[in-house]
Write a structure and sequence with these properties.
alpha/beta; seven-stranded mixed sheet; 9 helices; 13 strands; binds pyridoxal-5'-phosphate
């Protein structure tokens, strides 16, 4: 596959080549059933099995203990921003948020539509270029939950360890780093992630939810926005995104074949070390704005001296087959998203072209 780009897109993002090839092989006729997986009923035995297998595989890979539901939802992580307060923020309680960047801010703003909120910690004054220390986090005494964003996709900052919230449910948006490293899932009451960064194509959102969160979900909110309804119906209250679930299944099989999360984490660190080293050893030609202790192993943000040079960098790398290195429009600069499916070779090639560009422009 010599003409596959070096894809550093932030989302939708790179998928493993092996997964795409397997999907291609099975596209017209899925496992001898005489039709595509896209053409079967979601009530069929085949989809029931696929749905169950995918839940099981995720539980196995991520180490999800008993007492948790795995749901496949639609509407992206952005719909979860509203569902969380609608389902869990009761009157007299406070939705507690850690403000670490653009995505955390969206989650927090959405909660303000439904109830009282507070900030348990914020790195806004440092332009989100660091993740607050766990000791800086001040849980509101009436907190209904604490919400964190484990990896800020736009700024490139990532939690390195997670707060202990005792009996207060800890909820994490892991859209851009789920399955990139090992996590103690038992610390969380809820983890959610849109699939299109690290799990598959867009169209499905994975929600991992502790059973006790479902105990008293309000009955006066829209049916489609109730977690208890989705749990009771095994994510098939309405027609699920069958093809996206199928793709997530293939990606999970691929991760398992790669050696699971320990192997993924090791490889992700090796990949990002290549690029962070290219930044740190450039004598200031490239600058990584995020504090070293908060650097993301999924989204590497960096800058050059001025925007002209950044434009030149993007143009030259594009001419050499690199895609997606432009920073998010809200922050500018450059960003390389190095999700699980981005090969080591792509990161090595990026580190090399960075060094080469510096030689010619430094
Ligand atoms: C991409 C992203 C989202 C938004 O996901 P949608 O599926 O587009 O709603 C939310 N949170 C984080 C951390 C993200 O990276």
């Amino acid at each position: 596959m010599g003409n596959r780009a070096y894809n550093f897109n932030a989302g939708p993002a790179a998928l493993p080549l092996e997964v795409l090839q397997r999907a291609q092989e099975e596209l017209v006729e899925y496992q001898g059933i005489g039709m595509s997986i896209m053409e079967i009923s979601h009530r069929s035995a085949q989809f029931e099995k696929l749905n169950g297998d995918t839940q099981q595989l995720l539980k196995e890979l991520f180490g999800i203990p008993d007492g948790y539901q795995v749901l496949f939802q639609q509407g992206g992580a952005s719909t979860q921003f509203a569902m969380i307060p609608m389902n869990f923020l009761k009157a007299g309680k406070v939705g507690s948020y850690v403000l670490t960047g653009a995505w955390a801010e969206k989650a927090w703003k959405e909660a303000q539509l439904f109830g009282e909120t507070s900030l348990a910690a914020s790195s806004q004054e440092q332009k989100f270029m660091r993740i607050p220390e766990l000791s800086e986090i001040r849980l509101h005494p009436d907190a209904a939950y604490l919400h964190i964003t484990s990896n800020e996709t736009i700024e490139g900052a990532q939690f390195q360890s997670y707060p202990d919230t005792g009996s207060v449910p800890l909820i994490a948006d892991m859209s851009s780093d789920i399955l990139s490293r090992q996590v103690d899932v038992s610390k969380f009451s809820m983890i959610y992630a849109g699939a299109q960064k690290n799990l598959g194509p867009s169209g499905v959102t994975v929600v991992i939810l502790k059973d006790d969160m479902l105990k008293d979900v309000p009955k006066n909110i829209p049916t489609m926005l109730r977690y208890d309804i989705h749990a009771k119906n095994n994510s098939m209250y309405n027609t699920p995104p069958v093809y996206s679930v199928y793709m997530v299944n293939l990606v999970l099989q691929w991760i398992k074949g790669q050696g699971g999360l320990a192997a993924m984490e090791k490889r992700n660190r090796e990949k990002t070390d290549l690029i962070y080293n290219a930044i740190d050893q450039s004598g200031g030609f490239y600058r990584g704005p995020v504090e070293k202790g908060s650097r993301s192993i999924m989204n590497i943000t960096f800058r050059l001296q001025d925007e002209e040079l950044e434009k030149k960098f993007i143009k030259e790398t594009e001419q050499n087959g690199f895609i997606g290195l432009k920073g998010h429009r809200s922050v500018g600069g450059l960003r390389a998203s190095t999700y699980n499916a981005v090969p080591y070779e792509a990161c090595k090639a990026l580190a090399e072209i960075m060094a080469d560009f510096q030689r010619r422009n430094g």
